[in-house]
Amino acid sequence: MIQVICREETYIYNAYHMTKAFYPSVEVVSQIEEEASNYVTVISNGTVLAAVSIESLSEDVGNCLSREQKHLLDRTLYSQLCAQTGRTLSWGILMGVRPTKLAMKKLCEGVSRAEFVRWFMENYLVSREKSELAWQIAVKEKALLDRLDARDGYSLYVGIPFCPTVCSYCSFSSGELSAWKNRIDDYLDALSKELRYIGQVSKGRRLNTVYIGGGTPTTLGEAQLERLLSCIDTHFSREHLLEYTVEAGRPDSVTREKFAVLKDHGITRISINPQTMQQRTLDAIGRRHTVEEVKEAFALAREMGFDNINMDLIMGLSGETTEDVKDTLRQIEALSPDNLTVHSLAIKRAARMERQDVKDAGDIGAMIEEAAGAAKRMEMSPYYLYRQKNIAGNFENVGYAKVDKAGIYNILIMEEKQTIVACGAGSVSKRVYPDGRIERSENVKDVAQYIERIGEMIERKKHLLSDC
Ligand code: SF4
Questions:
Q1: Does the C-beta of 249 come closer than 6 Å to ligand 1?
Q2: Contact 5/12 with Cβ under 8 angstroms?
Q3: Which residue has a Cα nearest atom 7 of ligand 1?
Q4: Strands of the sheet with 381-386, listed across from one edge
Q5: Residue 441 and residue 49: Cα distance in Å, rounded?
Q6: Quick check: 43 and 49 in contact, CB under 8 A?
Q7: 215 Cβ inside 6 Å of ligand 1
Q8: 215: cis peptide before it, omega within 30°?
Q9: DSSP count for the chain of H helices, then E strands
Q10: Burial of 130 (0-12, 13-18, 19+ CB in 10 A)
Q11: What is the pLDDT of residue 69?
Q12: What is the per-residue pLDDT across 438-461, written as a single tens digit (0 to 9) for each?
């Protein structure tokens, strides 16, 4: 176990996450000790791995760190942990900051690629490769966002929080379908009320993207899917719609009939997410579907005319080697999806995984490189990137897409340039004001509570969307 001791709460987040990034498979605990002699100390079994003294912060720390002091602390702690472990982090000292947001800001300021890369490497100690990646993605994102109406445009998210089974790494508030099957119609009743309200107050604004996610929306029966999509058709105009996505994530949830319903309602983009093409891993993580089912669902979707299919993969799943990942990628390349989203496994509190299952950061780095190579061979380029807390080795999630197949909604959710109105249990709406200010409104996570308190959820939206 590693202990991170910090004099103030302000720095605990960075100190903890940086330590965790260097030691992904070790339990890290943090504590505040106001009287500690150092500002931050990292200890393992009595051995000091890193320590930054108060004196080294040059000026008086006072009640809170200045931005410069925080930066200095980050760099000092980072270099000590590098020396201790003999390795660097590809995203350097960037903790909890979206790299593409920084790149986008520089891009909008007219900074050149070379200047940005130099600044990113020197200032945040990010590797050249990741600095180039952040820039490349910011350029792509900007080109896509420039097509959207930031003032009058908005996007709609609809959450269906049910899955055939719950995967062991899942950190969403998704429930097993069997536990809710008698309440799904009640859930759709509540959702319809929320959709109707949003449709009414959003008249006059331009709906640019719709994303139905979850959970697994295709766990709904054919008639239920029909009902949901018809409700959206009734209350929203498609005049300015650029993209309509439905996650069909679990191959064991799709049928020809359900795909036909999606086609009838003009869905332009779907996701079929294997996460891995190794049967042993699928069994171990509780997916309860086969590799063959992934291939069949994909072939069926193609046969039915879906020409924008995303596939999600996770790097770092329990028991997988780089060879397994290479084999998975070979199988994915044979299918040739239009988008590939590569996640690095994030261990969140809600997930039912054992700590010893967390991979070594070096292995995940190699897997990510393999995935980037496969995406390139499929003529895809990276178009969005985000990082989560607790990703082993402090890596990233990257979305790759073939020409003109990028998921616009994915960029919007990351870059927060447009209002996203979200409905369903556990969804979070974000209103983006012209001055860049963001206001949020959350729905309750619990499905039964959502159904019971739908009036209150709508009231919350009234506040958020008033004078919209
Ligand atoms: S399919 Fe996705 S949302 Fe559903 S349980 Fe698995 S990880 Fe969670």
A1: yes
A2: no
A3: 170
A4: 381-386, 397-401, 339-344, 309-315, 269-271, 243-247, 206-214, 153-160, 419-423, 428-432, 438-442
A5: 42
A6: yes
A7: yes
A8: yes
A9: 16, 17
A10: buried
A11: 85
A12: 999 999 999 999 999 999 999 999
